[in-house]
């Protein structure tokens, strides 16, 4: 699993996607991120993702983001797990 720290992320690298539920995202999030809940992203990956692009996946504790990265990498997407530091 490809991994970087949030401090290493730059918007020019690709889209940062926060996979927490919308209420948690609304309370606090990185302003560079967009919010797509993990289950929604997994179930509708072809709607939100392109296999030619790289996406950076984040959540608060890492459980959801690791699940998304593992699952969707299996389907051929280029995803990077972002450690929230």
List keywords for this structure.
85 residues, alpha/beta, Oxidized Rhodanese, domain 1, 5-stranded parallel beta sheet, 4 helices, 5 strands
Largest sheet: 5 strands, parallel
The strand order across the widest sheet is 1-5-4-2-3
Tally of strands: 5
- Helical content stands at 25-40%
Mean pLDDT: 97
Unreliable spans are none
Shape assignment: globular
The CATH superfamily is Rhodanese-like domain
* Binned strand content: 15-25%
* CATH architecture heading: 3-Layer(aba) Sandwich
The H/E string reads EEHEHHEHE
The helix-and-strand class reads alpha/beta
- The name of the CATH topology is Oxidized Rhodanese, domain 1
Q: Number of DSSP helices?
A: 4
CATH class: Alpha Beta
Assembly context of the chains: single chain
Total count of domains: 1
Distance between the first and last residues' Cα: 18 Å
**Rg measurement, Å:** 11 Å
What does it look like?
By secondary structure, the protein is of the alpha/beta class. It has a single domain, classed as Oxidized Rhodanese, domain 1 (3-Layer(aba) Sandwich). The protein is built from four helices and five strands; from the N terminus they run E-E-H-E-H-H-E-H-E. Strands 1-5-4-2-3 form a five-stranded parallel beta sheet, with helices on one face. Strand 2, helix 1 and strand 3 form a beta-alpha-beta unit. The two termini are 18 Å apart. The relative contact order is 0.28.
């Amino acid at each position: 699993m490809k991994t970087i720290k949030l401090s290493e992320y730059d918007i020019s690298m690709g889209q940062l996607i926060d996979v927490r539920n919308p209420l948690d995202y609304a309370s606090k999030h990185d302003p560079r991120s967009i919010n797509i809940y993990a289950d929604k992203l997994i179930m509708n990956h072809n709607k939100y993702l392109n296999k030619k692009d790289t996406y950076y996946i984040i959540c608060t504790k890492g459980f959801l983001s690791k699940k998304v990265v593992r699952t969707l990498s299996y389907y051929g997407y280029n995803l990077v797990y972002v450690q929230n530091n």
